[in-house]
Amino acid sequence: AYNFSPGPAMLPEPVLRQAQATMLEFGDTGASILEISHRGADFLAVARQAEADLRTLLSIPDDYAVIFTSGGATTVQALLPLNFAAPGQAADYVVSGHWGKTALKQAAPCADARTAASSEDGGFRDVPPREQWRLSPDAAYVHVTANETIHGVEWRDIPEVGNAPLIADFSSSIASEPLDVTKFGAIYAGAQKNLGPVGITVLIVRRDLLEREGQPRAPIFDYRAQANAESMLNTPPSWNWYVLGLTVKWMLDEGGVAEFARRNARKAALLYAAIDGSGGYYRNEVATAARSRMNVPFFLHDPALDAAFLSEAKQAGLVALKGHRVLGGMRASLYNAMPEAGVQALVDFMREFQKTHG
Ligand code: PLP
Q: 213 and 263: one domain?
């Protein structure tokens, strides 16, 4: 089946097969990858290779640390002010969907988290244009969500913000196209869309930000301490780290982010063209320039057909198309592991469904 889940999402088949084999026996360790110490040479090699490959894949410069943690993107959102803002300091949030709001909510207990701009009044069908942003002169950082997974709204070009470092949630679009890391103070992503399995989160942070005092926090929540300890202050999610490494390696072998940018552009164009060309049978409500390449929410002209659409799609081998409960309707997530043939199969099914039920 083609799995259009928004995350945990489809993984490449070669990654799953390799993970399956090493689940039983890893190298000459005489043990499963699940059973070896994170401090032993075998796992340290896995962890370091994953980081090195991620640095290659995303062209991460040396003056950025890469930190692997558990807790998901939401935990990063909660720890950003503790690490990078002084007590009571302003932090600006540009909100273009559900996850931007979440980021602000997570930061609010530990910072003067401000909505610098929001497209909520328009139902999150666009990004708030730069001229509407009201940035605080003393902000610790400016936060944006590169791709809103639920609303299907993506920044195609994240604007300059001036002096404060830009921190971006790239959970659902990391590694989908080339990225200029140096534009950002920090980038973070839960792995479960483009980078591998759920249970591990990546934070890419400019090292000078790690020198900020931040606020009183337990050592385990201290990103400087995590960076110094190679993300091993405690037992890391080693299995997830390993499968992330396999996924990153697969992306490199497939041609890297430039190749995925081409594939992802073709996949998104194919699906949006089918929606727009359906004469209103299907519709996507996001402003054309802000339409996500990764998550495509769409609605049938008659919601009474939703159940039939989902069950017939499943029979056709197209699964996890149900939209998020916040929006309803359908959503197709087209991450890197989704082949172009999967999107073609979806588009063919949509045309057929329209013919049968239209
Ligand atoms: N940010 C974005 C853009 C997301 O899509 C998600 C989850 O889907 C999150 C944050 C929350 O991530 P997690 O569940 O890893 O905490």
A: no
User: Which tokens belong to 65?
Assistant: 């640390």
User: For the chain, how many helices (H) and strands (E)?
Assistant: 9, 14
Judge if 118 and 146 occupy the same domain: yes
Domain boundary among 224, 253, 282: 253
Does 267 participate in catalysis according to the annotation? no
CA distance 124 to 105: 17
Element (H, E) at 110: none
One domain, residues 156 and 75? yes
Q: Which amino acid is at 109?
A: P
Q: Give the distance (Å) from ligand 1 centre to CA of residue 331.
A: 16
For the segment 255-305, what is each residue's pLDDT rounded down to a tens digit?
Answer: 999 999 999 999 999 999 999 999 999 999 999 999 999 999 999 999 999
Inform me whether the pLDDT recorded for 358 exceeds 90: no
Ligand 1: residue of 80, 172, 174 to mutate (most ligand atoms within 8 A of CB) is: 172
User: Which of 93, 96, 99 has the most ligand 1 atoms within 8 A of CB, as the residue to mutate?
Assistant: 99
Look at residue 130 and tell me if it is in a domain.
yes
- The whole domain housing 135 covers 13-253
